Amino acid sequence: MTRSAIIVVAILGVTSAVLAAEHPVAQKTTGATAVGGYIDHELFWNDNAKTFDQHRFVPFIFSEVSDRIHVAAEIEFEHGGNVDGGGGIKLEFATLDIAFHEAASLRGGVILSPLGRFNLIHDSPLNDLTNRPLMAREIVPTTLSESGMGLFGTLYPSAGTVVGYEVYMVNGFNEAAATCLRSGRGSQKYDNNEEKSFVGRLNYSPSLGLDLGGSFHVGAYDDAGDHTMSILAADGSFNRGPFEVRGEYASASIDGAVEDARSGYYAQGGYHFLPGVLSFANSILTATVRFDHIDLGASEETRTTLGLNFRPEEETVIKLDYEIYDQNDDSNGLILSLASYF
Amino acid sequence: MIWCRTGLLLLAAIASATAAEPPAEQPTGEEIGSVQVFLYPDEARMQAFAQAASFDTIMFAAPIHLQDELVERGVRSFADDSVAVYIARDSTAAPLGYAIIGEEIGKYRTITFLVAVDLQLQISSVAILVYRESRGGEVRRQRFLRQYRGKDGADPIRINRDIINITGATLSVRALNAGVRKSLLLLESMLDKRPRH
């Protein structure tokens, strides 16, 4: 055993002997593999639907092949997982990371595309509202996972600032993107043309609690590889004490499509209050408001969402939302949902 | 006894990390993978108490009621019934403060950290020893960790209250908060002190 290995083993020996961790998010099953996941369940109550939806059950697996080689995967069972019943099962992501340095890691697999903020931070237990922003459905079709390879890393230009980046070459979208970006998410098995797409994001945090990001997705989407689609996005978030605000803007330019310019944005604010109520020491309530807008060329929609949620533990949330649509009045209504990591 | 075995393992591990390899000859973080291992236990202790002349290590056997108290105060109970506490001493052997090395699970893997407190049980520093996740490594930076300085067991130590979150590393921050709260409660119990604001 090398001296390096001896010291690493010694450190791990120390750390395994103290304050043994117990946490609902992940449980160690073998020496190097952890499993966990999250679940959400929703009740919609509006003129279009009064129904329960077992929306997501997402187990994840994380394994350390070695100290600097990791494999991670999330398997999504959506709407119960029954394909005949409108559900589905898919790899939300499955990646092999090889860390050369904190500033440069190689990643390959089914990658969570770094396009906008929401696609990267979309877990239901983390979000204070049930439905995702309209922009995060129609312009950045979350959850957007693509087959590809690339690099990611973090740099620290100064003691108080952080810069992160991700850039990947991926299969990209397919021809259906001309009519609907959500339907145009590409195959994880094969590219429909010979042109590769590129997706990347650069984020900058000038101070703790303030994060700014810019991202892109560009490449040919049609079978012949003649037409290019580009999506550009900008995002920002700020949190301080009980207050937090965040927002995103994204625009898509789709060469050859009838509606060749689409865009959307949202702005969201939250306030956390009444900690430690109902005999849950870690509990907190959160009031949230979000303003949403999308312009798809042929149609537009604006939505306002008011939300109140209760977290008995930080990983678990009960959400009550009321949505008000500008165009689709029948969808105005209540949503009650539960979500938790496990 | 589990805690006796734990203590022996702990002491053996410390011995192998410190006595068998002189600090000056230890491989650098770059050599063993700076992506994850940032500090060794002895380095972390010395950083936390730069003026310390020596350290004592004691095994604190947690009383049974402490597990209940941990749960009441929103900290998950722990499996072992003892924990190693370092006591930093100056050249006259007077105590300078205390430190605990702990572990909590972030999204996927454990984060190993050190919490150091002064004699009033206020945090003097928090350091990350090992970070195993692919993302969120900036929790080890002082830009984030200095938020803990001066806090004690009467503070919330929670995001959206007195700890500013790191976007994209929420679960790591929550885990570290829980670990810091647990360390403070253990030290309060061991020293029979309870800070009041």
What is the gist of this entry?
The complex is a heterodimer of chains A (about 350) and B (about 200). With about 350 residues, chain A is mainly beta.
What do you see in this structure?
The complex is a heterodimer of chains A (342) and B (197). Chain A is mostly beta strands and 342 residues long. Chain A has a single domain (24-341), classed as Porin, CATH 2.40.160. Chain A is 6% helix and 57% strand. Chain A has two helices and 17 strands. Chain A has helices at residues 3-17, 135-138; strands at 26-28, 33-46, 50-66, 69-78, 88-101, 104-112, 145-158, 161-170, 197-207, 210-220, 228-240, 243-254, 261-273, 284-295, 300-313, 316-325, 333-341. A 16-stranded antiparallel barrel of chain A has the order 2-3-4-5-6-7-8-9-10-11-12-13-14-15-16-17. Residues 1-29 of chain A have low confidence and may be disordered. Chain B is an alpha+beta fold and 197 residues long. Chain B has one domain. Chain B has helices at residues 2-18, 29-32, 41-48, 64-72, 142-145, 170-191; strands spanning 54-61, 82-89, 95-105, 110-117, 123-131. Chain B has a five-stranded antiparallel β-sheet with strand order 1-2-3-4-5, with helices on both faces. Chain B starts with a helix and ends in a 6-residue tail after the last helix. The model of chain B is unreliable at 1-35 (pLDDT under 50). At the A-B interface, α1, β3, β5 and β11 of A face α1, β3, α5 and α6 of B.
